[in-house]
Amino acid sequence: MVTMTELHRYGRTKFIMPGTAACPGCPLQVGMRQLAMALDGKMVMVIPAGCSSVIPGTAPNTAYTWPTLHVPFASSPAVASGLVRALRQRGVDGPVVVWAGDGGTADIGFATLSGAAYRNDDVLYIMADNEAYMNTGIQASGTTPWMAWTTTSPSGKTEERKEVDLIMLMHKIPYVATASIAFPMDFIDKVRRAVSIRGFKFIHLHTPCPPGWKMDDSYTIRAARLAVETGAWILWEYNQGRLTISPPSIPYKDKSRRRPLEEYLKIQGRFAHLKPEDVKAMEERIDKQWDLILKLAEIFK
Amino acid sequence: MTQAVARQVRKVLVGDHAVAEAVRLARVQVISAYPITPQTLIVERISEMISKGELKADFIRVESEFAALATVYGAAAGGARAFTATSSHGLFYMYEMLWWAAASRLPLVMAVVTRVVGPPWNIHNEHSDLLAIRDSGWVIGMAQNVQEVFDMTLTAFRISEDERVLLPVAVGLDGFILSHTAEPLDVPSQEDVDSFLPPRNPRIPYVVEPNGEAITMGNLPKDDVYHAILKELMDESMENAKKVIAEVYGEYGKLTGRNYGPLTECYRCGDAKYIVISMGAWTGDILNAVNRLRNEGYPVGVLRIRYLRPFPDEEISSWINGVKGVLVFDRDYSAGYGGVLAGEIMGLVPHNVSFKGVIAGVGGFDVSVDEFAELIRDFIDKTERDGPMRVRKSWYIPRR
Ligand code: SF4
Fold it and tell me: A46 near A96, Cβ under 8 Å?
């Protein structure tokens, strides 16, 4: 487990140079910095279209301090597959990381994601999920939660949320985990465990986005933490055959210890239109999700 | 004909296997492709070579052509020599990546086995697929026979990786007519190919690797003319490619005794008053028709386009200089315009010279030597009788 002292070492390390084009309170900057800490900034990154292709600023400059390929929306897992094979052919080692949003992962890039996973190519895939297409101005994605407002679901999304991490689990890859930017130690540990394994690794990182969720810039981490504390976002890890609930989520196996869901929902403007019965229906979905994950933990003991 | 330096072995291969043979001898490191008729034989043969240990490479079994081009793009960025192959719908499924690969200036080679684009489903030969990528920034070649398929594939790596070019190269071969037809060809030894084609330098133009330089590729440009400058540089590379193609084939000719164009080739053009222009395998049939017409006393020659990009405007202009008529055969159709070659070439033909573009073979039907002879004879006779015509587009569809 990573220690605070170890992380303090990185206090002044600018993995991402200042003056980026990110919005105030951007969760991607936080998450990417945590990823860089985990890997000591040593990686190659492939990024499809999205906020993270705009954040580093304009070519030939970049705010990211590692080599980066920005590629078309649907292509990043395939590009990473080719990249990692070329590096291994040349005898070059080191992590190849895809950093992609929910659009590039769950929707337009899903076929290439599935392909790279099925081939078990030696890639670490981080899905930074802010639950909508934020870079184009908040349109609903496959992972936008049920009933959330977006510009293409103005009275709330009517479809269910796609469970990308569970779908990845069924690809029989060695490592799948969920993570949250509000729990950096957990995320960093997961990244380090993941890169120590050969094959395809998938981490689903929860990244609440202030403009997209219609909330104050200062609420990013608060929202991410509340998602875990209300049980709405469950942190778990599947590592080569074993599925476990991650330490920050362990208390919330017990429903009575979860914070009321309203606390999480009320800070988000995108849920302002919810009726009490909608909140109830959401709670039921959360209970079912816990049921499912705990049963999976039983199966993959 | 120059004396060949290389020790060569005569083999009998179908066009697709000739591509695979060139890939093997080029010591390609990463190959990725998705099966599509009539390209599949390439993928199968390469997989076989790798599994038998004849080629030390990674074959990436991808889920689509889009992924195929994306993986070889990634492989080229990682410093490897990379290759893919496709056809028709597969090529169109790659379309976005075609542009991305070209403007990223990474060396890549792709075989395009030409085929009709649906609907309806049709696996026969047509050039519309290959011609639809002409604006994307790829160097585009089109072979006439299996020997040239092999030679064009092998030389493509040299052209693509040349510092003055750094553009991806598409090697076109006619579906079934070349891809599935066995012809004898001469194959140089590995040793001779190694001396002609050294391993790729992974640092040209740049490499993306862990602990490597923190470069960024593909993010937003700095100012509003950045993109235009990139395109201008690409244009410069296309112009350079003309010289590089000539140099590469010059060297290749010394090695193998096979001398090509470079960008075009003209048969019986020295004293010709009429020039017929075409591209690909059916040029062989047109040549037979022209030989027949020569016996009948018609002063006609055949100009074959070997590379459509860079566009061989100087070569075409010099071949048609002083002739009375130019007839272009297109095995493709640009909707709302006409034949692609005719459209591109017409601008080079002076107004007092007779010109006609004929669209034939679209959908894959065969055009016989007799039919070619008839069409050419008709064009020449009409021009001689009525003076120059200016027909950009006419359809040849036999009602069978
Ligand atoms: S829209 Fe959201 S994810 Fe995108 S840059 Fe702004 S805060 Fe970050």
Answer: yes
How is B292-346 classified by DSSP, letter by letter?
HHHHTT--EEEEEESEEES--HHHHHHHHTT-SEEEEEESS-BTTTB-HHHHHHH
Query: Distance between CA A33 and CA A20 in Å, rounded?
Result: 13
Q: Nearest CB to A111: which of B63, B75, B202? A: B63
State how far the alpha carbon of B43 is from the alpha carbons of B14, B48, B141, B147, B397, in Å.
13, 9, 20, 19, 34
CA-A210 nearest atom, ligand 1: 7
pLDDT in tens, chain A (301 residues): 888 888 888 888 899 999 999 999 999 999 999 999 999 999 999 999 999 999 999 988 999 999 999 999 999 999 999 999 999 999 999 999 999 999 999 999 999 999 999 999 999 999 999 999 999 999 999 999 999 999 999 999 999 999 999 999 999 999 999 999 999 999 999 999 999 999 999 999 999 999 999 999 999 999 999 999 999 999 999 999 999 999 999 999 999 999 999 999 999 999 999 999 999 999 999 999 999 999 999 999 9
Question: Which atom, in ligand 1's list, is nearest to the CA of A22?
Answer: 5
Q: Mind giving me the DSSP string for B282-296?
A: THHHHHHHHHHHHHT
A212 touches ligand 1 (CB under 6 Å): yes
The CA distance from B116 to A82, in Å, is 29
- Please, are residues A176 and A99 in contact by the beta-carbon 8 Å criterion? no
Kindly list the residues from chain B whose CB atom is less than 8 angstroms away from the CB atom of residue A54: 219-220
- The complex's ipTM works out to 0.96
Give dist(CA A239, CA A242) in Å, integer. Answer: 5
